[in-house]
Amino acid sequence: MITDLFLRGRGRERMSVTDIQALEDSVEDVRTLGPRQLLVERGREVQNSTLLLEGLMCRYMDDREGHRQIVAFHVPGDFVDLHGFTMKRLDHDIGTLTPVRYGVVPHARLTTVTESWPRLTRLLWFSTLLDAAMHREWIFRLGRLGAEGRVAHMFCELHARMAMIERVTDGSFTLPVTQVDIAEACGLTSVHVNRVLRSLRERNALTFKGGVARILDLKVLETLSEFDPLYLYGSDVELGAG
Amino acid sequence: MITDLFLRGRGRERMSVTDIQALEDSVEDVRTLGPRQLLVERGREVQNSTLLLEGLMCRYMDDREGHRQIVAFHVPGDFVDLHGFTMKRLDHDIGTLTPVRYGVVPHARLTTVTESWPRLTRLLWFSTLLDAAMHREWIFRLGRLGAEGRVAHMFCELHARMAMIERVTDGSFTLPVTQVDIAEACGLTSVHVNRVLRSLRERNALTFKGGVARILDLKVLETLSEFDPLYLYGSDVELGAG
DNA sequence: CGTAACGTTGAAACCTGTCAAGTACGGTGG
DNA sequence: CCACCGTACTTGACAGGTTTCAACGTTACG
């Protein structure tokens, strides 16, 4: 099914058969888009939301000089701009990092969901709050950690999220981003990200080359970044809104 | 009414009389709490959500050494931990800055709301997404701005939010926080916050003394911090989810 | 009027940014 | 197959912003 990865590893099992069907029916169309493309522009009115099926996307804001701050990464199964449903206009841009395949979910159908499927509604709501929880952790990361901690934290999070959707093999996962992207996410310069990656490599904690991340020592990364996956609300943690 | 400030200045007018009544009825009790108290502890299971009626609260996370990162401020009218409704456990602590008065909203009543009042449900959802939008702006602030920009940004945001609930007189508003609090919100040391505040004062942009902020030149603050209030989704901006 | 919390200031250390140059790699066209 | 090109990555030296450490001033309050 199209929506198979939605909330995978995050309490998807709370969805009933009818919930799953209602969600599946809310997808009007499946489309593709190339890498490094703008999908939704800040301030533009949106009528649909986007369920990412394959590829990597990100949300970002540019400063006055055009320097980008990435505020979120999105992996398959993520409802990238579900918040557009209740907000109508977004306060940031959404773009692709890699080629993507995504489902188009018209807001009209979501309105119907909220009127007929209260539990599914709460789960959709929950999924937008996961984003907020990740935002908070990024605030912590930027506010309290040094460069190494920030980068390590980013890899810890992506490793955990990739694991939930079964994209991690042997501690390795595909992450087709550049060092510039990492810098833009971590509030650093690409030059410094380069130095940090070298340092992490020399600690035998992580390698990142050719768009492939290999976790060598998760414990070291977690210690460096004070990472605690609680905020990802994985299924191993007891959840609410059932 | 108890819930008068909820979504004030943020599209409250979209609430119908019955929505307002349903929300009002969801408040089980009104309580008070002293300053600098913990209201909800990270990881603890929650059964109620908190509608702040009077006073200031904040959400924060501590690092390994006990250094606090404030991830959100809350002013009257804010549903401080509505996300607890669908998340059940919170990933951060919630505490008071000043003495507060707040409404207790049992999750059971919220479940009923989601089953009977789809539009109110969407508005509650929307209110949690406002927090997420503010989180994103804080990420931007920490990732892309220097110390002056961060502090200026914080004051711009609080000024705008206080204005929405009519707590600004003549460019001044009460903000009973210390320089340490500001530092913990902006990812700086209190020593440096002190220097920044002096600098902003010398620019004739802002004074902050004795828990009172006075905006002298909003334009300067907005320029310094690249502040754009779009993300606050004020009523002057067209909104969705009607 | 003493005390504790908060605020203020200076000097030095440290981390990250900036600038500049050079390397590695993959794709394209001859 | 190789020369060429652009993009991404790498490294070094130096500049600059923020932290750290330490001391002192100020204010509120019992």
UniProtKB/TrEMBL annotation, chains A, B:
Taxonomic superkingdom: Bacteria
Gene Ontology MF terms in the entry: DNA binding
GO biological-process terms attached to the record: regulation of DNA-templated transcription
SUPFAM superfamilies linked: cAMP-binding domain-like, Winged helix' DNA-binding domain
Chain coiled-coil ranges: none
Protein name: Helix-turn-helix domain-containing protein
Keyword line: DNA-binding, Transcription, Transcription regulation
Residues covered by the HTH crp-type domain: 145-219
InterPro entries referenced in this protein's UniProt entry, alphabetically: cNMP-bd_dom, cNMP-bd_dom_sf, HTH_CRP, RmlC-like_jellyroll, WH-like_DNA-bd_sf, WH_DNA-bd_sf
A Pfam short name: HTH_Crp_2
